[in-house]
Design brief:
Blueprint lengths: L6 E5 L8 E5 L13 E2 L3 H9 L4 E5 L14 E3 L2 H15 L7 H27 L6 H17 L1 H9 L6 H19 L4 H13 L9 H4 L7 H7 L2 H10 L6 H9 L20 H16 L10 H11 L6 H11 L7 E4 L3 E7 L9 E7 L4 E9 L9 E4 L2 H4 L4 H6 L6
Antiparallel strand pairs: 1-4, 1-5, 2-3, 2-4, 6-7, 6-10, 7-8, 8-9
Helix pairs in contact: 3-4, 3-5, 3-6, 4-5, 4-6, 4-7, 5-6, 6-7, 6-12, 6-14, 7-11, 10-11, 11-12, 12-13
GO molecular function, one term: phosphoric diester hydrolase activity
Pfam families: DUF3391 (PF11871), HD_5 (PF13487)
Protein name: HD-GYP domain-containing protein (C-di-GMP phosphodiesterase class II)
Length: 416
């Protein structure tokens, strides 16, 4: 008969090797692990916890070592539900979800991207070793990403696009999660549906953990045989997730069907139209957008605005038109990072969307086409009353070869 579950909240100073760490009392961003629910088997793990800002944790004495008799627990719980309720109350009171400027949110988004990448790397490594996926741990990451999108939709989405070819597979998961959350909000889905969409976006490419790295990182076009191998990743990911813990039907569905197309030409099951669920149709749009705007081993990413233009041309057969339209609204017609030309002839980079108009974002101008020279950077809000300038059109970054475009928008309001 298994030992009874006794949950205790203890100070981190009282942690010992052999204890089963049930939950951290604090934000997912504050502790050094991507998930909870494991037995501490290395003293260095305790050192990492002590070095963090986490002060207390929950342990399960039914699954691991108890505290010494002389150590007083901070509190007890009779069920996991009690622990979850307490952590949820603490998280709600600590969350700051008011709208923040992009320049302010970028710093937090950078930390989320960095830790998110580490978490996805760990998940992929565990999948390669045959370990079950822990969806509960991934949900904490989704919450942090969703909170960032709430504070400012464009910051994390835009930062996650700035990945090297080597980072692509991992940060792509973080980016698609954020895109799915933003799209869910635009479609006015419930909070439960939004969290499900975010989790599905985070885990949609898990099957790539079983693909040969030399194929995933190949710097040239794949052969037919290699492409056949890569096309197996939705089925492999679905299998991995099916064997995991706490993975819901929506996540499984998006993993298996995010490469289906409305006209039935996708894979692996050639579904079409209404046969494809809403979340899978959303996943198809978010997956493609991040893929074509990111630097890959075999090509440089396209400009965000140009990417939306090209995707619009594919909508009739590839994407659900209503979902794609909502996606454009969630990002803006000229997403952050787009190079545009103003009616004055000056060039600028979009640094933030306006809540007033999709056609009038905030832009950092930095180049005069009339003088053919750089000018001191200046932020212009095209949506403000009395604004005289308008966007005359998008520009191809490759045609101008500016070496610092990403730095210009990523610095937000800070002069470059």
């Amino acid at each position: 008969m298994p030992p009874p579950t006794v949950l205790k909240r203890i100070r981190v100073e009282d942690l010992r090797v052999g204890m089963h760490l049930k939950e951290f009392c604090g934000s997912w961003m504050e502790h050094p692990f991507w998930r909870n629910g494991f037995v501490i088997d290395d003293p260095k793990d305790i050192e990492r916890i002590l070095a963090s800002s986490i002060k207390e944790v929950w342990i399960d004495t039914g699954k691991g070592r108890d505290v010494a008799p002389e150590v007083q627990a901070v509190s007890f719980a009779e069920s996991e539900a009690e622990v979850d309720a307490e952590l949820a109350r603490a998280a709600t009171s600590a969350r700051q979800l008011q709208r923040t400027p992009a320049a302010e949110e970028l710093a937090r988004a950078a930390r989320i991207c960095a830790k998110g990448k580490q978490a996805v790397v760990s998940m992929f490594q565990e999948a390669r070793m045959g370990r079950a996926v822990d969806a509960a741990g991934a949900e904490r990451m989704v919450d942090e990403i969703a909170d960032s999108v709430t504070r400012n939709p464009g910051a994390l989405i835009s930062l996650a696009r700035l990945k090297t070819a080597d980072d692509y597979t991992y940060l792509h998961s973080v980016a698609v999660c954020a895109l799915m959350v933003a799209l869910s909000r635009q479609l006015d889905l419930s909070e439960e549906e939004t969290r499900a969409a975010g989790l599905a976006g985070l885990l949609h490419d898990l099957g790539k953990a079983l693909m040969p790295m030399e194929i995933l990182n190949k710097p040239g076009k794949l052969t037919d045989e290699e492409f056949t191998i890569v096309r197996r990743h939705p089925v492999e990911g679905h299998r991995l997730l099916s064997e995991g813990r706490g993975v819901t039907a929506p996540t499984l569905d998006v993993c298996l069907h995010h490469h289906e197309k409305i006209d039935g030409s996708g894979y692996p099951e050639h579904l079409s139209g209404g046969e494809i669920s809403l979340l899978a149709r959303m996943g198809a749009v978010c997956d493609v957008y991040d893929a074509i705007t990111s630097n890959r081993p075999y090509k440089a990413g396209w400009d965000p605005a140009e990417s939306l233009r090209r995707m619009a041309e594919w909508t009739s057969g590839h994407f659900d038109p209503a979902v794609f339209q909502a996606f454009v609204k969630s990002l803006g017609i000229y997403p952050i990072g787009s190079l545009i030309r103003l009616s004055s002839g000056r060039l600028g980079i979009v640094v933030e969307q306006s809540e007033r108009s999709l056609l009038a974002p905030r832009v950092k101008v930095f180049f005069s086409t009339k003088a053919n020279a750089r000018i001191p950077p200046e932020i212009i809000d095209l949506s403000r009353p009395g604004a005289v300038e308008k966007i005359a059109g998008r520009e191809d970054p490759a045609a101008w070869n500016f070496p610092d475009l990403d730095r210009l928008w990523a610095l937000g309001d800070v002069a470059a």
